[in-house]
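User: Hey, quick favor. My workstation is busy. Could you predict this chain's structure for me?
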Amino acid sequence: MEFTKSEAKQWAREHYKGLDGVLSPSFTPDLKELDEEGIRFDVRHNIAKGMFSMLCQTEVCAMTMAERKRFVEIACDEARGKALVSMFTGIDTIEQDIELLQHFEKVGGTHTLFGWPGMFYAKSEEDIYRVTKKVCDATNVAVDLWPKPKFDFGRFHPSLFNPELVERITEIPNVVAIKAYLTDGIGKWADIQHRVGDKVLLQSAEVEEWPVTVGKYKQQWAGPADYVIFDQTPDNPRIVRMFNLFRQGDFSKAMELYWQLAPITIGSRNAMFQGGMLAVKYMQWLTGGNGGMYRQPTGMLFQRQKDAMRAGLRAAGLTPREPEEEFYVGRLNYAKGARLQY
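Assistant: No problem, here it is.
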């Protein structure tokens, strides 16, 4: 690691600047193995679109532990020296999370988006703190806390994740940042900002909130999120320019880009969120990514969802990718002649 735990917070302040994208796993057309070429393509795609970092989405579909390890290893190798790589913590069990994190650190990963796994049911806030510290103590990577309502801690506090507990967790040396949304509760966000805004980096990944969180609260980074879907080519990275304009205090110019991208923010992404993680992969493909189907049980996309995603992109001046069959087998495999087999 290029920093010690005691240096982690300062390291994050120096390196977390800009947009943190997401990297989805790709599989061979028969879904039996990881598609290494497709994964490497998407790493380069994130870098070309101006991401300073990208999150390996280790949780989005069925993968073995060996596949998850190989996935993050490929990503770190391709991104080395060009972008940072993070991964999601919170898959099946605490011990599996620790095992994967330790491997991730060895192959060059620098930070993790911290969640809690399916096989964890806290009986108290002390349980949450104890387990969080156990995982943080087991690794040297920087930790980005995600106090999201989805983890079902609302039974302990009306904010759905007690800001006082957040403050306590940020005292752990390698906890460096917090990913939180205004839509999770403005009071909660303000309380967290008041408690720890000068200790760790607080940010919202949600584009619709940036006029406030970046424009007024000087947020210096955002993510991880699907920012590559906003720009079809690296030649006109509007989402990156918009974020930087907010950071530089040029609010009016930033808002011009904000409204240009609104058909994607409000239209395409709303349809995407209804389709789950597979829809995120589909949107990435529509805007230049590798694509490729996920293993079940991620479900299927309805045509109306695909049409809505395409319509939002067109309204923002982008041309969605064709043909549809390419998405299923993956862009690179399609170019080599792969087709759906019946």
